[in-house]
Amino acid sequence: EPTETNASFMARILGPSANKAGLQSTDKAMITRVIYEASKGTPFFENERRKDQALCGRIERLLEKRKQLEGRDLTHIRKLVDMDWRQLEAERDLSQTIVHVDMDAFYAAVEELDNPELKTKPMAVGVGAMDDGRKYGIRSAMPGYIAKKLCPELIILPLNGAKYKHGARAVVACALTCPSTPAYLNITNYMKETGMTAEQVTQQIRQEIRMLTNAYQTSGQSKHQICSDINKPNGQYMLANDRDTIMAFVRDMPIRRLNGIGRVTEQLLNALGVHTGNDMHEQRVILKLLLSPKSFEFISRAALGLGRTDLSIQYDRKSISVERTFRNMSDVQQQMDMLDKIATKLAANLERKEIKGATITLKLKRSDFTVLSRSRSLAQCIFTADDLYFYGKQLLVEEQPIDIRLMGLRLSSLQDMRSK
DNA sequence: GCGGATCAC
DNA sequence: AATGGTGATCCGC
User: Fold this and answer.
1) Using CA atoms, how far apart are residues A280 and A257, in angstroms rounded to an integer?
2) Are residues A219 and A296 in the same domain?
3) Which residues form the UmuC domain (predicted)?
4) A171 shares its domain with A209
5) A371: which nucleotide lies closest, measuring CA to C1'?
6) Region class of A309: left (phi > 0), else alpha (psi between -120 and 50), else beta
7) Protein-to-nucleotide distance from the CA of A160 to the C1' of C4, whole angstroms
8) How far is the CA of A320 from the C1' of C7 (A)?
9) Amino acid A209: pLDDT
10) Which of A6, A153, A280, A354 is surrounded by the most beta carbons within 10 Å?
11) Does residue A99 sit in helix, strand or coil?
C-alpha cells in the first residue's frame, strides 16, 4: 500500500513532471498506484527509498539547525544580506535581449515528421530517454514497461541517433548566426543592426529552422521537414527588460522551475517554507544562515530575477566519459572484458577529440543500484585504450568481489593532445 | 585530490 | 523480468 510511505517518497516515485502536468487528482492517484505497484519490491525501488530516507535526514538536520536559531537577534544578518542584495541590484543589466530556444520532445517531433500517422497516437522514443506523454502520467526517463501499463496502446520507437542529428544540426546552424550557445541566443546586436523587434527575430529563427530542415529534405537525408509544429503550442513568452516586470515574474515562480533547482533542493527548500521567489525574499535571513555560500548566492540571484547576460563565456570540457548498463555481473573476467570495451570506446572518443587526461575515474553501480566511484590522479596524461584499461583494472580489482549493473570510465584533468 | 550527491538535458 | 548516458558542479572531508 502506498500509505506505508510518505509524501516526499511518492513525489520521487511519481517523477519530476508529476506536478507540472496539470493532471486531475483522481488520475494522479491512479497513476501513482500503477507506478507504485509496478515498482514495489524491485532493487531500484528500494534504492529510491534509501535515497529518500537520506533526504528526510538532511531535512531534519536543517530544521534542527533552524530551531537553534529561534529567538536570536538576526538584525545584523538581515542588514548584511540586504547590503549584499543592494549590491547585486546595482549590477543588474537590462540592456541585453536573449532568446531561449527549447526543443520540446525533439526526438518525438522528428519521428512524427517521418511518419505523420504517429501524430494522432500516443508515442514515445527510446526506453531511457522517453518524451513526456503527460496526460497518461508517462514521463521522461520512465522505463518502457511501466509506461505500457499506464497506456497499453503506447508506441515505443527505438532511438535513432543519426536521424536526430540532422535536426540538431539545423538548430545549431541557425544558432551559429549569433555568437552564443545553442540554447540561449543573445540577439541584442542583431536587433540593433536590423531594427527588428525581439518577436520578429524569434519569428525569423523559426523560419530559418524550417528552411534549413527543408534543405535536408531535398538532399534526401530526411523525408520531412523538422519542427514544422514548432508554432503549434507556440510556447513563446516575452519578458520585458523592466525591473518591475521581472520582479513580478519571479515573485510567483515555483522554485522548481529555476534552472539548477531539482527534486532534492525543492524538497529541502519546501521544508523551510520556501515555495516561490517571494518566499526566498521573506526567508532570506534564515536561508543565509542555513545554506552554503554558493547555494545562498544562487538563491539571491534567483530572488532578484538576475540571470546571466554574458553568453560569450567560452565552453571548455572538463571531463570525458563512457558508461554502460548491462545485466547484473559478478564474474571478474566478464567485468574485465566490459572494462576493455569501455576503455576502447573512450580511447576512440579521446582520439577524435584530440585530448588526453591525467585523472582516471572508475564508476560502478551495484546490482542494488548504489553507485560508487574510485579515481586516481596520475603523474602523466594517458589516452590509449591500453593505458585506460591498465589503470581502470587496478581500480576495479580493488572493489572485488562486487556485483554490478553499470560500469563507466571517466578521464579528467584534460589537456590538448599536442600540449606537453 | 577524492567520493558522494545533485542537476540538466 | 524490467529504471539511460554524458558532463558539470558543489560539498565535506
Assistant:
1) 14
2) no
3) 98-262
4) yes
5) B4
6) alpha
7) 15
8) 7
9) 64
10) A280
11) strand
- Taking only the tens of pLDDT, chain A with its 420 residues reads 454 456 778 777 776 545 544 567 777 788 888 888 888 899 999 999 999 999 999 999 999 999 999 999 999 999 999 999 999 999 999 999 988 776 556 677 667 767 778 777 777 776 544 445 667 877 777 888 888 888 888 888 777 767 766 666 655 555 555 444 456 778 899 899 999 998 888 888 777 766 655 544 433 222 223 333 333 345 578 889 999 999 999 999 999 999 999 999 999 999 999 999 999 999 999 999 999 999 999 999 999 999 888 888 878 999 999 999 999 999 999 999 999 999 999 999 999 999 999 999 999 999 999 999 999 999 999 999 999 999 999 999 999 999 999 999 999 999 999 986
Residue A369 is placed in which grid cell? 543500484
A132 touches strand B (CB under 7 A): no
- The distance (Å) linking the CA of A298 with the C1' of C9 is 13
A151 CA → C3 C1’, Å: 17
Spatial distance from the CA of A218 to the C1' of B4 (Å): 50
The reply to whether A219 falls in a domain is yes
| Phi, psi for A222 (deg, rounded to 5) | -145, 135
Chain A window 320-359, residues with Cβ within 7 A of nucleic strand B: 359
Asked if the Cβ of residue A51 lies within 7 A of any atom of strand B, the reply is yes
Which pTM value belongs to this model? 0.87
Q: Which 371-410 residues of chain A approach strand C with CB closer than 7 Å?
A: 405-406, 408, 410
CATH number at residue A212: 3.40.1170.60
Strand partners, A248: none
How far does the CA of A76 sit from the C1' of C7, in Å? Answer: 40
Nucleotides of C under 7 A from a protein CB: 1-12
Residues A85, A40 share a domain: no
Distance CA A335, CA A403 (A): 9
Q: Give the domain range for residue A273.
A: 71-90+242-304
* Distance from C-alpha of A150 to C-alpha of A134, rounded to nearest angstrom: 11
Is the alpha carbon torsion for A278, A284, A268, A68 positive or negative?
negative
Q: Which residue has the cell 518577436?
A: A199
Q: Is the CB of A168 under 7 A from strand B?
A: no
Instruction: Please state whether strand C lies within 7 Å of residue A140 at its CB atom.
Output: yes
Q: Would you say residue A313 lies in a domain?
A: no
* Pairing outcome for strands A98-100 and A184-186: antiparallel
